[in-house]
Amino acid sequence: MPPGEFELIARWFTRQSVRSDVLLGVGDDAALLAPPPGQVLVAAADTLVAGRHFLPGTPAACIGHQALAVNLSDMAAMGAEPAWALLSLSMPQADPEWLDGFAQGLHALADAHDVALVGGDTVSGPLVITVCLLGFVPSGEALRRTGARVGDLLYVSGTPGLAGAGLELLRSGIESFDSTDDCVRRFLHAEPRVTLGRRLRSLASAAMDVSDGLLGDARKLAAASGVGLRIELERLPLAPALLARWPRDRCESFVLHGGDDYELLFTLPVANAGRVAELAQATGCELHCIGEIVAGEGVSCTRGGRVVAVPGTGFDHFAG
Ligand code: ADP
Ligand code: MG
Predict the structure, then answer these.
(1) d(CA 248, CA 243)
(2) 81 in Cβ contact with 134 (< 8 Å)
(3) What's the pLDDT score for residue 257?
(4) Which atom of ligand 1 is nearest to 119's Cα?
(5) What is the DSSP track for 62-104?
(6) How far is the CA of 84 from the centre of ligand 1 (A)?
(7) How does pLDDT run across 215-232, given as a tens digit for each residue?
(8) Tens digit of pLDDT for each residue in 145-178?
């Protein structure tokens, strides 16, 4: 017999919280949480829809991981410390095997970031997963998209593009879900840059996470700050796993347009550029300067100092 709603919540989503700021977790009508004094709450929510955000056959543990990872990445982009998660789970049936995998993926990532699952909702319906994540940041210290200034330098963390390439490898059947290929692993198991985000609070003038493609997201940052961005294409980090499979221009395209890497795009005043090497070391994360902030608007890409046209835009659910 499949588990009923209450058994399901008790078995897969109720755990002893180790966070002392969870005054009341799963079980009552709502959770009671105690944010630290002097800090502001940071809230984010992201939804994964079967067939839209993950491929058929995706292991449940990867879906559990991703549902939280996308939200952790939003916290990282704000320089926030994640703390409490709410899970709204709609699924066609309560399959214990699927729930085992899903809960394992979700709880493993939550534990790694000291996040407590404090509530949610469980309903039958199409497979749709929404996680709402709450965190905090010292008042006035949150990173925003709006602070980039002309003359600042533009950076990206890690090697974006791998996840988009991984998606393509899975979609075309070249690789399978249990592949150890770097691209596939990045797509299924991206690690949000929470530590980097926190460290950037005192250094960056603006930040956002790259979820819908570097170029499209860069345009959003430029618009929010009311500046122009110039990206030097030869500075884009091209991961060995990309170069091993595709010609250079194709790799570049993955970096510019691929989604789901959850790296951070950020701007630094030139005076802070000297701190980047130390920051990369402390966070165990490559940091690449890929351009600068200029007067004007939009994003221009250059190669050899010349502006070149780059086709394509970021992902938009409602664009035709
Ligand atoms: P109510 O009907 O009062 O909304 P529910 O039966 O929906 O209560 O939920 C009971 C408790 O279980 C609540 O504390 C709720 O936050 C929690 N809960 C429900 N579904 C989940 C879930 N998927 N993950 C975590 N907590 C959940
Ligand atoms: Mg409810």
Answers:
(1) 7
(2) no
(3) 95
(4) 16
(5) HHHHHHHHHHHHHHHHHT-EEEEEEEEEEESS--HHHHHHHHH
(6) 14
(7) 999 999 999 999 999 999
(8) 999 999 999 999 999 999 999 999 999 999 999 9
- The ligand whose atoms approach the alpha carbon of 13 most closely is 1
Verify whether ligand 1 is closer than 6 Å to residue 4 (CB atom). Answer: no
Sequence-distant (6+) residues with CB within 8 A of 174 are: none
- Which among 168, 210, 163 has a CA at the least distance from the CA of 188? 163
DSSP 8-state class, residue 121: E
Measured CA to CA, the distance from residue 46 to residue 54 in angstroms comes to 13
Distance CA 258, CA 12 (A): 33
Q: Are 163 and 258 in contact (CB under 8 A)?
A: yes
- pLDDT at residue number 320: 45
- Average pLDDT (64-89) is 98
Q: Which of 280, 275, 290 is nearest to 238 (CA)?
A: 290
Give ion ligand 2 contacts, CB < 5 A. Answer: 121
Q: What is the dihedral of CA 316, 231, 254, 304, to 10 degrees?
A: 140
Which residues, other chains included, contact 44 with Cβ-Cβ below 8 Å and sequence gap of 6+? 71, 74, 75, 78, 132, 133
